Amino acid sequence: MSTVGIDIGAYRHVAAVCREGEHEAERAVLRINARRTGFGELDGWLARQAPVSLVVMESSGHYWLPLASHLRQHGVPVALVNPLEAKYFARSRLQRSKSDPADARTLAALGMRDRPTPREVLAGAELREASRFAMKLVEQQAEICQRIRRLIDLGFPELQDEYDDPTCTSALALLATAPTARDVARKQVRTLASARTHRGGRAVGEARAARLHDAAKTSVAPPELAEQISFQMRILIDEYSMLESHIALAEKRLAGLLDSDLSRRLRTIPGVGPAIAATLIAEVGDIFRFTDVDQLLAYAGVHPKEQSSGTKGADPETSWRMAKTGNAHLRTAAYRMAVVGLQHNPLIKAHYERKRAQGKSKMNALGHCMGKALAIVWGVWRNGRDFDPAGGRT
Q1: How far apart are CA 15 and CA 105, in angstroms?
Q2: What is the structure's pLDDT at 392?
């Protein structure tokens, strides 16, 4: 039996073989292009290496998907390995060269030694692609919110005294009508009071509009920037609204793919919509492959790592940092759950307040809430019950 390692590239792939009983892959390699002709060459080469028990490739990027699909259609078992696993395997063998052929040989030898379990590597690929696309739209909208906050700081900073979240629906409705303090001061109160977004929602209201109108008259916003801030604000709000409609379409698409009781149960957790539920299901896969919640946190990269040496990190409250290794898509979903949970999930909110009371910074406390969010997911998923705000796991 032989194992084959394939180093994946954007335009070319390199394959190497390791024979049964050997610890090193053969020096000779096969170079193929990443098109149908190359796939045909690989088929013929694999036939000459028969019997091939396993093909090993790294799970980085997206260029592996067409080749993995082709191999599975031809009944060839495929195993994906984490790039770090291959990297540390090469280091353990004191491998010095770094090239496509060397990487292919490393994967072939790793496959022979460790025998990673082959699986249906394309199973759930559509859901994974759909969830990542939806989450990317959410990330882009969050970036737009940050840019809008900057413009508020410059164009009407007093708005933040009235709204805890200056990018909420009501605040954006006001800004769409009057983007700067100068514009707000020039509008009539009743015009400001009736402002709504195209999505509806509550109007600004007479009392709040009056307070904002008064604040705008004495705003510290520099008038020299008013025209440019107004121009930029209207464009950013248009972008925000466009992304809002695109997110709705993406979540509708996801809802059609998420026809399961698991999806419904996960969505009982405050802050978990179709996009986050799909991300959790697609990225976690089988929750029972993790023996405890700490393994899930490590897989997402939200577990702590200690950074202390000598006097550095002597304070236990500041010596720990999030590892930020592992599955970045799952980590993004945990971040969104934590941010939304601060407003809508009592367990997340209480956890955040405890961490702040312990002296942790806002971002550090939020990082702990990301772990708490995944712990809630762990409980709901494994127990098979809806979210319970009294305990979160039953």
Answers
A1: 8
A2: 47
Tell me, yes or no, whether 63 and 135 share the same domain.
no
| Same domain as 136, residue 59 | no
Which CATH number covers residue 17? 3.30.420.40
List the Cα angle 72/74/80 in 5-degree steps: 25
Angle made by CA atoms 234, 240, 245, in degrees to the nearest 5: 130
- pLDDT value at residue 172: 92
CA distances from 5 to 57, 77, 103, 300 (A): 6, 12, 8, 26
- Which residues, 6 or more positions from 193, have their beta carbon under 8 angstroms from its beta carbon? 203, 204, 205, 206, 208, 209, 210
pLDDT < 50: residue spans in the chain: 308-309, 312, 392-394
Question: Cα separation of 386 and 378, whole Å?
Answer: 12
CA 70 to chain centroid:
28
Joined tokens for residue 147: 């840019």
What is the C-alpha separation between 234 and 223, in angstroms, rounded?
17
Q: What is the rounded CA–CA span in Å between residue 111 and residue 85?
A: 11
The count of structural domains within the chain is 3
Identify whether residues 102 and 159 lie together within a single domain: no
